[in-house]
Specification:
The protein is α+β, with helices and mostly antiparallel strands and 399 residues long. The protein has helices at residues 12-21, 36-40, 53-61, 108-126, 171-175, 238-246, 249-259, 308-328, 336-364, 369-384, 386-397; strands spanning 5-8, 28-32, 48-52, 74-76, 78-83, 89-93, 103-107, 129-133, 137-142, 147-151, 156-159, 161-164, 180-196, 203-208, 213-219, 229-236, 267-269, 274-283, 287-288, 291-293. A hairpin with a 4-residue loop joins β10 and β11. The mean pLDDT is 93.
């Protein structure tokens, strides 16, 4: 089989990239190991995605935004950072920026579904995307003239460019011999949806407690009851998380209320519970010979700064612009110069915040006495420094 571009991974980033490239007289093949049903009708996975204003604009251009019901979009108006048992918080409000909100929160499975529908609409309009599901890449070879992959089914595909969009643990990246800087935080995240008595006022919490980290992501009121509702994210050691997953709903509710110091009143689980290992990844290179990475395969972020999917959309826009421009002008869409330019641009956009995130998490998850003092000093100083707060607001908005 001959094609122009192979995208490995039909998650939201891979599908968005296919959609971005469609309509420019390129043949695009998307390969996904999961079934078509799993892609077309993704299930709730516990993850709420915080979208910057820049990401919303990209989603609008790709035709995703209007596919997500307005009831499924929750405004993020304020971000609150708390430390230890103190009720003091560094507050970053939307009034520091140019929009009525800092950003938006949408469930991951809804974004995935919108990405699939948008890609499917592009396929129906342009006829230039082939989606191969239930397939897995087992080998890849690239040289100056072409890229060739082999699938588990035995099928061979030749292309000008292969793009990995297959997760932060990218098997394809490993096949290309590209090493990655990987940091295992030794923790696990538990995430779920809960109703609670007290309102959240559309404020997100990042609460660095002692021996735990809590996050609260505001969602729209519960259908029917209109009870305040949020996505709850708890970070603990794996054994502690495992114990929580085994509790019945009543005891789980009691435990989470206690961990939140009853600041939200009575809390009630209204979804399934999901767990994820806390590991960040940054490859040594973001491109190779006729090969590039996007999404989590390019940058696997710690969720504390909520930029993972935002960086994914940024990589889609950057790479698609490079490829489309080259194709329109009759140039090689996978030239070393093009891929190097993409790599440099995406590294500049992501590396500083990746390193800053590491510093934040290293400091705010230490419970030694000097670290506790420094944590409090930084938060209180930050609350008084308006340029600092404006910088955070701009980062949350994607400016």
């Amino acid at each position: 089989m001959q094609t122009d571009i192979v995208i490995v991974g039909a998650g939201p980033v891979g599908l968005c990239l296919a959609r971005a490239l469609s309509g420019h007289k390129l043949r695009i093949t998307v390969i996904e190991q999961h079934s078509l049903a799993e892609i077309a009708e993704p299930q709730f996975d516990g993850r709420e995605i915080a979208l910057t204003q820049k990401s919303v604009e990209i989603m609008k251009r790709l035709g995703l935004w209007h596919l997500i019901d307005t009831d499924a979009r929750s405004q993020l108006r304020t971000a609150r950072i708390l430390d230890g048992s103190s009720t003091f918080a560094l507050a970053i409000g939307h009034e520091l920026g140019r929009y009525p909100e800092l950003g938006w929160l949408i469930s991951n499975h809804r974004i995935r579904q919108a990405a699939y529908v948008s890609m499917r609409d592009a396929l129906a309009l342009n006829g230039d995307i082939a989606l191969l599901t239930g397939e897995q890449v087992v080998d890849i070879e690239t040289d100056a003239s072409s890229a060739r992959i082999k699938l588990a089914s035995g099928q061979h595909i030749a292309a000008q460019l292969v793009i990995a969009a297959d997760s932060r643990f990218s098997p394809l990246r490993k096949m290309m011999g590209i090493a990655a800087e990987m940091h295992d935080f030794g923790k696990t995240i538990l995430t779920c949806c809960m109703n609670h008595e007290k309102p959240h006022h559309h404020a997100a919490w990042e609460w660095f407690g002692y021996a735990q980290t809590l996050a609260l992501l505001p969602m729209n009121p519960a259908p029917g009851t209109l009870a305040p509702r949020s996505s709850v994210v708890l970070t603990l050691t794996s054994p502690e998380i495992e114990k929580l997953t085994q509790l019945d709903d009543i005891e789980f509710n009691r435990q989470i209320e206690h961990r939140f110091d009853s600041r939200l009143g009575k809390m009630t689980l209204v979804s399934t519970r999901h767990t994820y290992p806390l590991i960040s990844v940054y490859p040594k290179r973001l491109a190779g010979i006729r090969f590039a990475m996007v999404g989590d395969a390019a940058v696997g972020m710690h969720p504390v700064t909520a930029h993972g999917f935002n960086f994914g959309l940024s990589s889609v826009e950057s790479l698609a612009q490079e490829v489309i421009f080259a194709h329109l002008h009759g140039h090689d869409i996978a030239s070393p110069t093009l891929l190097k330019r993409y790599e440099q641009q995406h590294r500049r956009a992501t590396r500083p915040l990746y390193l800053m995130t590491r510093l934040i998490t290293d400091l705010y998850t230490q419970d030694a006495f000097p670290a506790k003092i420094l944590r409090k000093v930084i938060l209180r100083a930050g609350e008084r420094l308006m340029p600092f707060k404006r910088a955070i607001a701009a980062s949350l908005a994607g400016n």
